[in-house]
């Protein structure tokens, strides 16, 4: 089960790192995670994503935006494996790092919020998913504009959530 559209996956896995210092070995590992994920080898992708996270934490420290990128990538792989409970703290930590390091209006934060919202939707926590999608949409509309594909993807995810059978959110 895919939690996010391929366009968002590509944006997340290719999310540029903020820094340019250090040996950047983790970037090579992240490219390998992307390749393995696209090939459907989620077990190998998870192992490589864990190694990338370990490398970037050692290089940049635990609260750097590059760590958030690796956390998000590992969470995407865990979600693809159906390991939603394992993915959730990874997404939450990623969002926390991004908000603290990049600020509450950064588009990368919106990506993390969108992905966490998708996870909450998969876990049937619809109210939390709605709130996360709304916040991601607000950030993306301000930062990227209403016609940006990422903004449109978040808007579509929110509408899909609200239009699901049994939803009481249609009037929001």
TrEMBL record:
Residues 1-20 form the signal peptide. The keyword Cytoplasm applies. PROSITE patterns: TPR. Pfam families: TPR_12. The keyword Repeat applies. TPR repeats lie at residues 110-143. It is found in: Cytoplasm, Cytoskeleton. Keywords: Coiled coil, Cytoplasm, Cytoskeleton, Microtubule, Motor protein, Repeat, Signal, TPR repeat. Transmembrane segments: none annotated. Belongs to the kinesin light chain family. This is Tetratricopeptide repeat protein.
């Amino acid at each position: 089960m895919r939690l996010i559209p391929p366009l968002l996956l590509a944006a997340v896995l290719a999310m540029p790192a903020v820094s340019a210092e250090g040996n950047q070995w983790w970037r090579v590992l992240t490219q390998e995670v992307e390749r393995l994920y696209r090939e459907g080898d989620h077990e190998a992708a998870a192992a490589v994503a864990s190694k990338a996270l370990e490398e970037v934490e050692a290089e940049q420290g635990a609260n750097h935006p590059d760590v958030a990128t690796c956390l998000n990538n590992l969470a995407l792989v865990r979600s693809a494996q159906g390991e939603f409970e394992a993915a959730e703290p990874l997404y939450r930590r990623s969002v926390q790092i991004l908000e603290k390091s990049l600020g509450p209006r950064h588009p990368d934060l919106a990506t993390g919020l969108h992905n966490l919202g998708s996870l909450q939707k998969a876990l049937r926590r619809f109210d939390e998913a709605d709130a996360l999608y709304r916040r991601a949409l607000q950030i993306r509309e301000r930062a990227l504009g209403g016609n940006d594909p990422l903004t449109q993807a978040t808007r579509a995810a929110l509408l899909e959530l609200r239009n699901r059978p049994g939803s009481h959110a249609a009037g929001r």
